[in-house]
């Protein structure tokens, strides 16, 4: 815990200095950072109320009221009484206010561009993913939206690594589990060129949030492998969407059946499989992962969707 707290505080100090958050004139404009943030919200909302802005920014209501008063004195905003309640006044930018917003917005964009322009394309992707993961880990209110894409270069080692770490932390499964998922990822890479195998990654804000693989087992039989969802991304329907994507591909590819191997402790995954019509066909105790665990084989006969 102490190490985590120290790391977050160190990053906060670094970033506030990097973006000039403590400057009296943010980006050389006649604004502090809180004023620039408030101006951004007014510019990108449809005539908000002061209470809307206060809630969105989680600022003290009195402080927001004083800032709005400054904007009004500068001629940057106009306030119009609400038809239902004259005390609730809508806020809109004037042409001068719009010009002030566009000045600071242009400067901020240029400042960020200067920070990242020396990064390569892969480094920019890493930055997007890291920032997305940080937001998701620290803010449970983050949007529940996610996207699913096919696997690309570099995904498989990451998938294997994350599963090894998560299963170790949650269930105490050791190096044998890591060897298993690594071998599965390697086998997928070696067979993926056939076009009959495919993998998908779910992303939230550019950060990897989960994955699933489908492999060709021969004789029109397919296998679902390495389904997982990051702990911070659970509860969004990502696992369900990954399995649905996997089954749709299998049906379109003409597979007659799909099997999978899972374990009794993985309750969320097992519920998803059952909901899609998979049936438990075999169980067997094993200690391949360093501790006794009940392994389960599930199977689904596939019918092509029409």
Account of the protein in words:
This protein has 306 residues and is an alpha+beta fold. The chain has 2 domains: 2-118, Orthogonal Bundle (Arc Repressor Mutant, subunit A), CATH 1.10.10; 147-301, Gcn5-related N-acetyltransferase (GNAT) (Aminopeptidase, 3-Layer(aba) Sandwich), CATH 3.40.630.30. Helix content is 48%, strand content 22%. A 7-stranded mixed sheet has the order 3-4-5-6-7-9-8, sandwiched between helices. A two-stranded antiparallel ribbon has the order 1-2. It is elongated, with a radius of gyration of 26 Å.
Concise summary:
The protein is an alpha+beta fold. Helices cover 48% and strands 22% of the residues.
CA distance, first residue to last residue: 53 Å
Shape: elongated
CATH superfamily of the largest domain: Gcn5-related N-acetyltransferase (GNAT)
Q: Work out the helicity level.
A: 40-55%
> What do we call the CATH topology of the largest domain?
Aminopeptidase
- Total E-strand runs: 9
Largest sheet: 7 strands, mixed
Structural class: alpha+beta
Portion in strands: 15-25%
CATH arch. level architecture of the largest domain = 3-Layer(aba) Sandwich
Average the pLDDT over all residues and give the rounded result.
88
* Name of the level-1 CATH class of the largest domain: Alpha Beta
Query: H/E order of the elements?
Result: HHHHEEHHEHHEEEHEHEE
Note poorly predicted spans. none
Could you state the oligomeric state of the chains shown? single chain
Number of domains: 2
Return Rg in Å.
Answer: 26 Å
* Discrete helix count: 10
Order of the strands making up the biggest sheet: 3-4-5-6-7-9-8
């Amino acid at each position: 815990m102490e190490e985590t707290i120290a790391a977050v505080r160190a990053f906060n100090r670094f970033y506030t200095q990097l973006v000039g958050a403590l400057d009296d004139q943010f980006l050389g404009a006649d604004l502090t950072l809180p004023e620039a943030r408030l101006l951004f919200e007014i510019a990108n909302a449809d005539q908000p109320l002061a209470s809307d802005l206060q809630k969105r920014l989680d600022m003290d209501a009195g402080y927001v009221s004083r800032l709005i008063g400054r904007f009004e004195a500068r001629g940057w905003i106009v306030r119009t009484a609400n038809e239902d309640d004259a005390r609730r006044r809508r806020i809109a930018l004037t042409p001068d206010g719009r010009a002030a917003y566009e000045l600071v917005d242009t400067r901020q964009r240029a400042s960020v561009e200067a920070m990242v322009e020396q990064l390569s394309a892969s480094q920019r992707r890493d930055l997007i993913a890291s920032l997305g993961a940080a937001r998701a880990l620290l803010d449970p209110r983050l949007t529940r939206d996610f996207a699913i894409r096919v696997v690309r270069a570099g995904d498989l080692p990451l998938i294997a690594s994350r599963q090894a770490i998560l299963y170790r932390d949650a269930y105490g499964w050791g190096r044998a589990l890591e060897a298993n998922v690594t071998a599965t990822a390697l086998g997928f890479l070696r067979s993926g060129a056939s076009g009959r195998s495919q993998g998908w990654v779910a992303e939230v804000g550019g950060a990897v949030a989960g994955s699933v693989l489908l492999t060709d087992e021969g004789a029109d039989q397919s296998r679902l492998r390495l389904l997982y969802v990051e702990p911070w991304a659970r509860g969004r329907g990502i696992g369900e969407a990954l399995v649905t994507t996997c089954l749709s591909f299998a049906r379109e590819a003409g597979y007659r059946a799909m099997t999978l191997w899972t374990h009794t402790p993985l309750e969320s995954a097992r519920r998803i499989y059952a909901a899609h019509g998979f049936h438990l066909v075999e169980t067997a105790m094993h200690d391949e992962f360093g501790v006794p665990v009940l392994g389960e084989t599930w199977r689904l006969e596939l019918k092509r969707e029409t």
